[in-house]
Every structure is written in C-alpha cells, then in structure tokens.
Amino acid sequence: MRERTELEDRLGTLKKFETELDDAVTLIELGEMEDDESAQDEGVEQLKAIKKEAERRQVEALLSGEADANDTYLEVHSGAGGTESCDWARMLLRMYTRWAERRKFKVELIEETSGDEAGIKSATLLIKGHNAHGWAKTESGVHRLVRISPFDSNARRHTSFASAWVYPVVDDRIDIQINESDCRIDTYRASGAGGQHINKTDSAVRITHIPTGIVVSCQMERSQHKNRATAWNMLRARLYEQELERRQAETDKLNAGKTEVGWGHQIRSYVLQPYQMVKDLRTGVVSGTPDEVLDGDLDAFMEAALAQRVNGGGPDSVEDVD
Q1: What share of the chain is helix, strand, coil (3-state, %, to 5)?
Q2: Of the candidates 305, 298, 306, which has an alpha carbon nearest to the alpha carbon of residue 99?
Q3: Tens digits of per-residue pLDDT, 38-62?
Q4: Which CATH number covers residue 231?
C-alpha cells in the first residue's frame, strides 16, 4: 500500500505538471494575442512556480534507494578535542533535531551520554518520516568546527571534531537474522534526566554483537523490556546498514570516477572565526551563514550530495578550509 501511494503521488504530480504547464502557456499566448501584459506576467509567474516545484520533485526522485523511504537512526559522537568536542557534538545534535523539525519529521531521543564537563559524548536520534533516511544518509561522516572556544580563558581558536552516523530503521520488508548466542546483553543504570526510577534501576540495555563488534544501547524508556526491544531493532538496523555499505564499496570499485566517501572521513567544515563559512568538502557547496546551517538549514548540502551520488564525481577542488 505504501508503494502504491508513492506511485500514485508521482503519477498525479506528472499529470498536474502537464495541466499547469498547458494553462500557463495558453495564458501567455492569449496575453500576447490581446496585448495584455498582466496576463503575460501572470503566465510567466506560473511557469516559474512550476519550475521551482519540478526542481524539488527532481531531488526527491533521487531518493530511490532500497531503504530511502524508511525512518532512520542518527548517531552523533564527539571526537578529538575533549570538552570542546563534546560541546560541538551537542551543537550537531541540535542541528539535526532542528533540521528534522523543519521537515515535519518526528524526532525521538533514544540514547544520550553526557560529557564530563559539558556537551555530550554520544547520542542517538530516531527520526520518523517519509524519506527520512534518504535525506539524512548523506550526513554520515566527520564534521569539523573552527571557532574561538568558550571554554578557553585565553580566547584562542580551537578545532574540534564530531561524527554523525546514519542508518535506516529496518521494517518488515527486510529480513535480518541475528543469532542471539552471538550477542552479549548488559544492563546498567541510565544516566541523565528521567527521574528517580530511571536512575535507580538497571533499566538501560546494551547489546554487543560479538562477530562484528557493533554495540548499541538504549536507556530512554523506564522499562528494561522496552529498552531491550529498541536495542534489538537498532542492532538489526546497524547490521543492515553494514550490508548496504559493503554493497556500496563494491559498486565504488567498479566506478573509478565516483567520489569515495567512507565512514569516518571528514565531509564538512564549519568555520565561525576568523570568518564565517560552512563548506562541504565532497560537493563544494558553501554557505556564508553558519548560524542558519546550525539551526537546521541543511537542504542545499543534502541535495548536492544526493545528486553527486547519482551522477558521480565531485567538485573541481575539495581542499580543506582553515
């Protein structure tokens, strides 16, 4: 039923484009025949609106991957840089939360580990919405921040790193078999907000998949049973993403012209001082308004990365920015 709804929506959009295009052209032709400039202008404005909507739909057409329509998990991890890095990870978490809210997606915080002094060491979001994974998948990689550190009494410039990792929620159409004997399950007391109950019982669950070394954890529910169920779903999703990554690596080997964007490689730099700029090192897309980007304005970066995945290649120059 979901596939049928998507197909009906796409076919309906094509028919709508045909009708609106015919109406706009007819209006312009009538305006020219009757020397009515207002009618001509109205027809031109209609054509501009059709073009804008067609461009948006063209990007959505790129979301044709096996799991692009699914909900998605998004993990954020602090990197080198201590407290500064943990604060940067918190900023990234807020950025992706704001991006999801802009797109009317539903966002749930699955797990969060606070930093020793500020920020977070790691956190996991569950983002629910149509094509949530298709859009967010382009954000996997290392993100670099350059700014005057608020934690440095000498007001020196610091460089911090944090990573994002995106993998799809596995639905009933995808069968992932896990041998429980290959897993180690640990329970522990949750940290952070949640009241007395969440902090006084071993409700948090951590599952380690021994063959792959994949570790997932959930602590946001009061019930250990619910946390365990969520953790199993996360593990299935991580194993599925690992398989997709293996397939992508094989495809990249066959296509030497395609830009390789491996997990853990820096994909974007956010410079707040001495100047302001955000630059994507894969596509070359640049924004001069970091505040807007950090408030969730990521569509231009995602659209360019999606187009690059389909078309192959990269920018003429992806040199790093200081």
Answers
A1: 45, 25, 30
A2: 298
A3: 989 999 999 999 988 887 777 777 7
A4: 3.30.160.20
